[in-house]
Design a protein that fits this description.
The complex is a heterodimer.
Chain A (H helix, E strand, L loop, with lengths): L1 H5 L7 H29 L3 H5 L13 H10 L1 H32 L5 H13 L3 H13 L7 H8 L6 H14 L2 H9 L4 H12 L1 H17 L2 H7 L13 H6 L1 H8 L12 H33 L5
Chain B lengths: L7 H36 L1 E6 L2 E6 L3 H9 L1 H33 L5 H14 L2 H10 L9 H7 L5 H12 L1 H5 L3 H13 L2 H9 L4 H30 L4 H11 L4 H27 L5 H18 L1
Antiparallel strand pairs in B: 1-2
Helix pairs in contact in B: 1-13, 3-7, 3-9, 3-11, 3-13, 4-9, 9-11, 11-13, 12-13
Classes of the chains: A mainly alpha, B mainly alpha.
């Protein structure tokens, strides 16, 4: 009995594992608490919000919140524009960063140490330092206000967090045996061919990890999107937008659609805002539900902990 | 000495290496090195936007002087940021270490828990966090913010405010630890089980095993996670300093020059913070290594005689 409760040297006892599970479950609950709160609130009708006895379970499923939020955010067009903004830079970034990672892993060349040091340095310096001059470069090249402001840096390996992806590819290509490349060379493949035919297919897991992270990070970026799309960019003149930008301007969009209703029961309430937030995070939540395993294993793959 | 000549093959390798790197190197020069120099230059000037282009008026260190002496909002925000970030990093790192140790035990549904702890990395972004904070969904219901506010009221405002803020958004702070948990977990799984078995045979308790085996093996990861957390907090999420810089960029009274000075000050502050954590958490070079090296040198000297 005592053994069962307190365990032995080899096996942890019931009490210890009970404590672990309790802790994990309660911390897990704290973790998802904001999301649950958001979900519950988003279905409440105005009287539920005022009634302090309905804290968690709304009296009716007030779907109208979602309908209003969809209209306020102009959801489907915004969603498509957001995919546009996240997808193309991700693809460009993947090509360039995997090439750079491959070069670092496969070749010995002069100044290699210097370039690697620069790579690390770029991760550490805050992007705010370079933000202003790059903005000036882009605006003088007339890149701001459209997708090119994201594609051009991605093509030059300076997209959003590109350095981290170079590190991931560097580490992954290092683990591919040199013998494979040598064998290809003996069979007459050139450098470029052995990269595309051997290194790229073998690094598929790294590509998947980099692709989903890059996509999500572009999706979630708001500071740069705000800056590069510019101030006079708005839905009215058909500019690009992201769902998170729409969430930021939720209040003003709502007021412009339903103007003059400030005193009516339909004014902007927190249930509506929560519905908007839910809608803004819904696409990445769906992506996470499908690709969970890839996300979670990414850290192992990146080899950040050293082999 | 034999003269080494570079073979054709080596030269070709160099060529291809640089070919693969070319886009990135151009990017480094155009989008990192040049902007760095440029923004430092801006910070020493007053930049006016003219119809024909920019006009730079050199003012020396006036922007920096204004920043520290005249315009106090930025300095206050910066101090607030530092006062908040240092304990936050400590909390996040410790918390993720504890969670990862629990997850590393033989438990069921490890994958499920991992997914939950990683979820915020995907959904926690500036606007979402702002909505949650404004709705009060970010507080652990048990924590009484009022009591904490009273408990720290003896401190000056610029210290106590960040602390109260911190407790009122405790969940969101914990939300920042998804990646760190995974890093620790990956490191923990690399510790060889043979070490623990050997320790157990010698009669080591769980507590001793933790301090003598686990801690030394994941020590470098603690530093890595602290650095990661600082960078993560400094560049993303809800950061009022970035907003300030951003506002000043387009404000007619301030402009690019002043904003650049702010960006540089902010970056130096972040680098200082990184340096602080590096100093605190780095793995000190092994003493036995040093002794060994000295011994070898002494032997070599003797041999020469």
């Amino acid at each position: 009995m005592k053994k069962l409760l307190f365990g032995t040297r080899d096996k942890s006892g019931f009490l210890a594992s009970f404590a672990t599970y309790t802790l994990l479950i309660s911390i897990g609950f704290i973790y998802v608490y904001p999301v649950l709160y958001m979900l519950a609130t988003s279905f409440m009708n105005p009287s539920d919000l005022l009634d302090s006895s309905t804290k968690w379970i709304p009296s009716t499923l007030h779907i109208k919140n979602y309908a209003d939020a969809l209209a306020t955010m102009d959801y489907i067009p915004s969603l498509l524009k957001n995919i546009h903004i996240a997808l193309w830079p991700t693809l460009c970034q993947l090509v360039v960063t995997s090439m750079a990672g491959y070069a670092f892993a496969r070749y010995e060349f002069p100044l290699k140490k210097l370039w690697l040091a620069i790579l690390i340095f770029i991760i550490v310096i805050p992007p705010q330092i370079t933000m202003i001059p790059t903005y000036i470069i882009y605006s003088s090249l007339k890149l701001t206000g459209n997708i090119q402001a994201f594609i051009v840096p991605a093509l030059l390996g300076q997209g959003f967090r590109s350095s981290i992806f170079i590190l991931i590819f560097f580490n992954f290509h290092k683990q591919i045996p040199q013998a494979l490349i040598d064998a290809a060379e003996i069979d007459g493949a050139g450098h470029i061919r052995s990269f595309f035919r051997i290194a790229v297919p073998l690094s598929l897991p790294a590509i998947v990890v980099a692709a989903i992270f890059s996509f999500v990070w572009y999706w979630n970026e708001t500071y740069l999107v705000n800056l590069y799309l510019g101030f006079n960019n708005s839905r009215a003149n058909g500019g690009l937008t992201t769902l998170l930008l729409e969430l930021q301007r939720f209040q003003s969009s709502y007021e412009s659609i339903y103007s003059g209703w400030e005193l009516s029961p339909n004014r902007l309430n927190e249930a509506l805002r929560m519905a908007g937030t839910m809608l803004a995070i819904a696409p990445v939540m769906a992506l996470y539900a499908v690709l969970q395993k890839q996300f979670v294993e990414s850290v192992d793959r990146s080899g950040i902990t050293g082999e | 000495m034999k003269k080494r000549r570079l073979s054709k093959r080596t030269l070709r390798n160099w060529l291809y290496a640089y070919m693969f790197l070319a886009p990135w190197i151009i990017g480094v020069l155009v989008l990192v090195v040049y902007p760095l120099i440029n923004s430092f230059n801006f910070s020493l000037n007053t930049v006016r936007m003219m119809p024909k282009g920019m006009l730079l008026m050199p003012v020396g260190f006036k922007n920096y002087h204004d920043l520290f002496v005249v315009d106090t909002t930025f300095l206050q925000a910066l101090i607030g940021f530092a006062v908040r970030t240092v304990p936050e990093v400590a909390i996040i790192t410790t918390f993720s270490l504890v969670i990862s140790i629990m997850l590393n035990q033989k438990i069921k549904a490890r994958g499920f828990f991992r997914s939950i702890f990683f979820l915020p990395v995907i959904i926690a972004t500036g606007p979402v966090m702002n909505e949650l904070v404004s709705q009060g969904a970010a507080t652990v219901p048990i924590v009484n913010a009022q009591a904490i506010a009273e408990a720290v009221s003896f401190l000056p405002v610029w210290v106590s405010d960040p602390i109260v803020d911190m407790f009122s958004s405790l969940i969101l702070i914990l939300w920042n630890s998804g990646v760190q948990i995974l890093i620790f977990l990956a490191a923990l799984q690399k510790v060889s089980p043979a070490l623990y078995e050997a320790a157990k045979i010698d009669g080591g308790s769980g507590w001793e095993c933790f301090w003598k085996i686990t801690m030394p093996s994941i020590r470098p990861m603690i530093l890595l996670n602290a650095i990661y957390t600082v960078i993560w907090l400094a560049t993303g999420g809800q950061n009022e300093i970035i907003d300030l810089i951003y506002d000043n960029m387009f404000a007619s009274s301030r402009g690019y020059g002043y904003a650049s000075a702010q960006a540089w000050t902010y970056s130096v502050a972040i680098l200082l913070m990184l340096g602080l954590f590096w100093r605190l958490l780095r793995v000190p070079p092994d003493k036995s290594d040093k002794i060994e090296r000295k011994k070898r040198e002494r032997l070599r000297k003797r041999a020469r005689k």
